Automatic annotation (TrEMBL):
Record's protein name: Pyridoxamine 5'-phosphate oxidase-related FMN-binding protein
Superkingdom field: Bacteria
Source species of the chain: Kribbella flavida (strain DSM 17836 / JCM 10339 / NBRC 14399)
A GO term for molecular function: oxidoreductase activity, acting on the CH-CH group of donors
Sorted UniProt keywords: Oxidoreductase
One cellular component (GO) term of this entry: cytosol
Lineage: Bacteria, Bacillati, Actinomycetota, Actinomycetes, Propionibacteriales
InterPro entries: F420-dep_enz_PPOX_Rv3369 (IPR019966), F420H2_bilvrd_red/Heme_oxyg (IPR052019), Pyridox_Oxase_N (IPR011576), Split_barrel_FMN-bd (IPR012349)
Cited NCBIfam families: Rv3369
Keyword Oxidoreductase in annotation: yes
Annotated Pyridoxamine 5'-phosphate oxidase N-terminal domain residues: 14-135
Length: 140
């Protein structure tokens, strides 16, 4: 099972970023083998990263073809604070738990309000749940 060593400065920073940052980059691999990075909203439930997507997006098709993905945070302007998670993604047709949904909606309440969109509207437009289970962390 994947764990983050929070006793290190790096592990503590990654844990904080997973809890606090609003955007993470999800990189899938297209049919031609080309990496396809996309900024996405996400929720870390302590073991998996959850991302919601519109149904007909390339990232969904890419994951169905090749479930290996990478996630990374924005680095500093000078290239510091690099954190990259690698793992396996699945399209979860059963959806999020009630707790996961509540945490996600709370995290993005302000962002949704700025889009004049309710949580219900968002989940209607972005109904596909992608669950990413990390198996490797690297960075500095």
């Amino acid at each position: 099972m994947f764990t983050i060593d929070t006793s290190t400065e790096f592990g503590a920073r990654i844990t904080k970023q997973l809890a606090d940052e609003l955007v993470i980059w999800l990189t899938t691999v297209g049919g031609s083998g080309t990496p396809a990075p996309n900024p996405v909203w996400f929720h870390w439930n302590g073991q998996q990263v959850l991302v919601f997507s519109q149904a007909a997006k390339a990232k969904v098709h890419n994951i169905e073809r090749n479930p290996r993905v990478a996630l990374h945070f924005n680095a500093t302007f000078t290239g510091g604070d690099v954190g990259v998670l690698s793992g396996t993604a699945v399209i979860d047709g059963s959806g999020p738990t009630a707790e996961e949904l509540a945490m996600y909606d709370a995290k993005y309440a302000e962002g949704l309000a700025s889009l004049t969109m309710s949580a219900e509207d968002f989940h209607r437009e972005y109904p596909v749940l992608i669950r990413i289970t990390p198996d490797k962390l690297r960075g500095f």
